[in-house]
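Support request from a user on the community tier.

User writes: "When I paste my structure tokens into the form, the page sometimes reloads and wipes my input. The last time it worked, I copied everything first. Here is what I submitted, just in case something in the input itself triggers the reload:"
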């Protein structure tokens, strides 16, 4: 009896695991319209400075000069991240919000 149920479970699981074939219908390509936002002037200057730093030959620099460049790059990256103007929520915050909504409603 145990073998019969075991084989039955294997058969059911194998039927669910086997991928089904789907026939793809040909569709006309859709033209993608991009939303071009205007990049603020200060962001452009920061990005150009980053490009200048990347293009520099750092092999002839002293370690103190390299350290100053690293600090400058980190500061520029932090400033660029802060101009994102977005609201970011962590997964934990989302779970807490959902739990509060469930409890209150």
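"...and here is what came back when it finally went through:"
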């Amino acid at each position: 009896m145990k073998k019969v149920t075991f084989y039955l479970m294997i058969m059911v699981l194998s039927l669910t695991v086997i991928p089904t074939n789907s026939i793809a219908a040909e569709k006309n390509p859709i033209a993608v319209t991009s939303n071009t936002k205007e990049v603020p002037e200060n962001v452009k200057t920061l990005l150009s400075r980053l490009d200048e730093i990347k293009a520099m030959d750092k092999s002839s620099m002293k370690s103190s000069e390299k350290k100053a460049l690293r600090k400058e790059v980190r500061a520029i990256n932090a400033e660029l991240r802060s101009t994102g103007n977005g609201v970011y929520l962590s997964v934990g915050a989302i779970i807490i919000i959902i739990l509060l909504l469930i409890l209150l409603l």
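Agent notes: The reload is a front-end session timeout and is unrelated to the input. The CA atoms of residues 6 and 98 lie 40 Å apart. The chain is about 60% helix and 0% strand. Escalated to web team.
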